[in-house]
Specification:
Shape: elongated
Number of helices: 0
Number of strands: 10
CATH topology: Jelly Rolls
Distance between the termini: 8 Å
Helix content: under 10%
Radius of gyration: 15 Å
Length: 132
């Protein structure tokens, strides 16, 4: 059971990529291999207000995992979160939580891909965290 407590050692932030580009956050080490209690782990992606995200343009977050920090692939089943800009407002920001699949490997990260023409949001950061 998650009590949604933040642990700064289990949190990484990354600047948004430019439009028509993507980047991947640093990894978080879950400290164990697949199985155990990983399916009870809650991950959260926090997106700040993005006033420059162009209307109808998207940023898509795809969660990744791997047995090593330098060998990541999308989780199976895939865990994605897509945000869309709104006319005149960009994006209001949010926090979205997911549970990890039981097959999740030791290291996790999130890839962020911004659509072509999505505006310049590179001064803002998204955050991936594990909630305990």
């Amino acid at each position: 059971m998650s009590r949604n407590i933040k642990d700064v050692k289990l949190e990484v932030s990354k600047a948004f990529p430019a439009a028509d580009a993507n980047n991947t956050s640093d990894t978080i080490d879950l400290g164990q291999i697949a199985g155990g209690e990983l399916e009870n782990v809650v991950i959260e992606v926090e997106v700040p207000e993005l006033t420059a995200l162009v209307a109808t343009k998207t940023a898509t977050f795809t969660f990744q995992h791997g047995a090593a920090a330098n060998s990541l692939a999308a989780t199976d089943p895939a865990i994605t979160h897509t945000i869309t800009g709104v006319t005149g407002n960009g994006y209001a920001g949010d926090k979205t939580q997911f549970r990890l699949p039981p097959s999740c490997k030791r290291y996790i990260a999130v890839n962020c891909a911004v659509a072509s023409g999505g505006g310049d949001n590179t001064a803002k950061k998204y955050t991936l965290r594990v909630l305990c």
